[in-house]
C-alpha cells in the first residue's frame, strides 16, 4: 500500500475544524480558512462603520473580485456573474429558457438531487419533460458521451445539464466532449461544476459550455455562499435575474449580482481564499488531497473487505480529492437508512462522512483536504467494521 502524503506544514492550523472530530466531508460544504473568515469579518465591520460609503462603492469592488476569480478559472470576466451557489444558478438558467409544452431538459442519473428537483419544478408547470439518462457506476467516458448524445432530440431538447464532478459518485465527467456533442445538434449545455473550482485544473472558456457554474466555497476556500456563473455571449442578454434591482438596465452580469442591501462580503472575501490556496501551492494542495483520498479509500476499503482495484472505484482519476466506497449490499439500501448510518458514524466514531443510497446501493464518500491526516481514515476503518457488523 502506498503511504499517505506528508502533511503540509501549518495547513491544519488554517482551519477551525474541531480537532476532536475527523471531518472527512469537505466536499459537501467546504471549510473556510481562518484568514478568510477574518477578512470577511473586517469587511462586515467596514460595512457597519459606514453603510452608505460601503454600498455606494461596492460594485467596483465586486467587479474586481469577479475578474480575479474568473480569470483563475479561465472564464471571460465580462460573461461571468457572482451567484450564491449552483442551486441558485440552475434555477436562474431554467427560468431564463422560458420552456414550453413539449420541450425537454436532459440530465443524467449522476446528477445532484436539488438540480433534478429544479428541473422537475419547471418542467411540470409548462408540460415539458425531464429526461434522465441512466448511467452505471462503471460507465466509461465513451459510454457516457454515447448515452447522453442518444438522448438528445434536436427538435425538443432545450437544455442538457451535466456535472463536471458528480456529487454522489465523485465522477469526473468528459464535459468538453459532452458539450461538443450537444453543440453539433444545436442544443445548449449547462455544466454543474459544484466540485470543480480549486480541486481540478479548470478552463471554462475551453470547455465551451453555454452555461457553467461552480461553487467557490468548497475547494477554493471562499466564504459561503459564493459561486460564479459563466454564460456564453449569445445567452447573456436572455438571463432573467430573480430580483429586479437598480441594475436592471445595466444588463448581465450587474443585473444578476445586485439584489439590494444583501451581505456581499462573502464575494469580496473570496479572493483571499484563492490567495490562501496559492500560498499553500495549488498543485501541492491538489496532489496532497488526491494522495490522501486514495489512502483513505484503500484503508477503509480493506476494512470492508474490498481489496482488489476493481472493487475500489476511482471515476475521478488520479487527481480526485473525493473517493467513494460501495457498502455491503444490505447496508443503506434506502436514503433513510443511509442517513441513520451517517449519524451513527458521527456519534460513535466521531467521524463526519456522507453516506447515501444511490439506486438502492449504499455509497460512502471520502473527501481529503489539507486539514485531514491519515489517522482519521484509520479511525474510520477501525470503527466502521464494528458499526456495520451490528447491522448484519
What does this structure look like?
The longest helix is centred in the C-terminal third of the chain and has 22 residues, at 282-303. The strands form 3 sheets. The protein has a 7-stranded mixed beta sheet, with helices on both faces. It has a 3-stranded antiparallel beta sheet with strand order 9-12-11. It has a two-stranded parallel sheet with strand order 1-10. Helix 9 links the parallel strand 6 and strand 7 (211-215). The radius of gyration is 21 Å and the shape is globular. It has 2 domains: 12-31 and 281-389, Aspartate Aminotransferase, domain 1 (Alpha-Beta Complex), CATH 3.90.1150.10; 35-275, Type I PLP-dependent aspartate aminotransferase-like (Major domain) (Aspartate Aminotransferase, domain 2). Helix content is 42%, strand content 14%. Helix 4 (58-72) packs parallel to helix 11 and helix 7 (141-151) packs parallel to helix 8. By secondary structure, the chain is an alpha/beta fold. The two termini are 29 Å apart. The model has no long low-confidence stretch (mean pLDDT 94).
Give a topology summary.
Blueprint: E1 22-23, H1 26-29, H2 34-49, H3 51-56, H4 58-72, E2 80-83, H5 86-97, E3 104-108, H6 113-126, E4 129-133, H7 141-151, E5 157-163, H8 175-183, E6 189-192, H9 204-207, E7 211-215, E8 227-231, H10 254-257, H11 265-280, H12 282-303, E9 322-326, H13 335-349, E10 351-352, E11 355-358, E12 361-367, H14 374-389
Parallel strand pairs: 1-10, 3-4, 3-5, 5-6, 6-7
Antiparallel strand pairs: 2-8, 7-8, 9-12, 11-12
Helix pairs in contact: 2-11, 4-11, 5-6, 7-8, 12-14, 13-14
Amino acid at each position: 500500500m502506498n503511504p499517505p502524503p506528508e502533511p503540509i506544514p501549518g495547513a491544519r492550523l488554517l482551519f477551525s475544524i474541531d480537532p476532536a472530530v475527523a471531518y472527512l466531508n469537505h466536499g459537501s460544504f467546504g471549510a473556510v480558512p481562518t484568514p478568510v473568515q477574518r477578512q470577511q469579518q473586517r469587511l462586515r465591520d467596514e460595512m457597519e462603520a459606514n453603510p452608505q460609503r460601503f454600498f455606494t462603492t461596492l460594485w467596483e469592488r465586486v467587479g474586481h473580485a469577479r475578474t480575479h476569480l474568473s480569470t483563475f478559472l479561465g472564464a471571460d470576466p465580462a460573461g461571468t456573474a457572482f451567484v450564491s451557489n449552483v442551486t441558485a444558478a440552475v434555477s436562474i438558467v431554467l427560468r431564463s429558457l422560458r420552456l414550453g409544452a413539449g420541450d425537454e431538459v436532459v440530465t443524467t442519473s449522476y446528477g445532484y438531487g436539488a438540480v433534478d428537483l429544479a428541473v422537475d419544478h419547471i418542467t411540470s408547470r409548462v408540460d415539458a419533460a425531464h429526461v434522465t439518462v441512466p448511467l452505471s457506476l462503471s460507465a466509461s467516458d465513451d459510454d457516457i458521451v454515447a448515452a447522453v448524445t442518444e438522448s438528445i432530440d434536436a427538435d425538443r431538447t432545450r437544455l442538457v445539464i451535466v456535472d463536471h464532478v458528480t456529487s454522489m459518485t465523485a465522477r469526473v465527467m468528459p464535459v468538453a466532449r459532452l458539450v461538443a456533442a450537444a453543440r453539433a445538434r444545436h442544443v445548449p449545455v449547462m455544466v454543474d461544476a459544484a466540485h470543480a473550482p480549486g480541486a481540478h485544473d479548470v478552463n471554462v472558456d475551453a470547455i465551451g459550455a453555454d452555461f457553467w457554474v461552480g461553487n467557490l466555497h468548497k475547494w477554493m476556500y471562499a466564504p459561503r455562499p459564493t459561486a460564479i456563473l459563466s454564460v456564453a455571449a449569445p445567452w447573456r442578454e436572455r438571463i432573467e435575474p430573480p430580483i429586479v434591482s437598480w441594475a436592471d438596465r445595466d444588463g448581465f452580469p450587474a443585473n444578476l449580482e445586485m439584489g439590494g442591501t444583501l451581505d456581499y462580503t462573502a464575494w469580496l472575501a473570496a479572493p483571499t481564499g484563492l490567495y490562501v490556496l496559492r500560498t499553500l501551492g495549488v498543485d501541492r494542495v491538489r496532489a496532497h488531497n488526491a494522495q490522501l483520498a486514495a489512502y483513505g479509500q484503500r484503508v477503509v476499503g480493506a476494512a470492508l473487505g474490498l481489496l482488489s482495484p476493481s472493487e475500489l472505484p476511482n471515476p475521478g482519476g488520479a487527481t480526485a480529492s473525493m473517493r467513494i466506497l460501495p457498502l455491503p449490499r444490505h447496508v443503506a439500501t434506502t436514503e433513510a437508512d443511509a442517513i441513520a448510518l451517517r449519524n451513527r458514524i458521527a456519534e460513535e466514531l466521531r467521524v463526519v462522512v456522507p453516506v447515501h443510497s444511490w439506486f438502492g446501493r449504499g455509497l460512502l464518500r471520502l473527501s481529503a483536504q489539507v486539514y485531514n491526516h491519515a489517522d482519521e481514515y484509520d479511525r474510520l476503518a477501525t470503527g466502521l467494521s464494528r458499526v456495520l457488523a451490528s447491522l448484519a
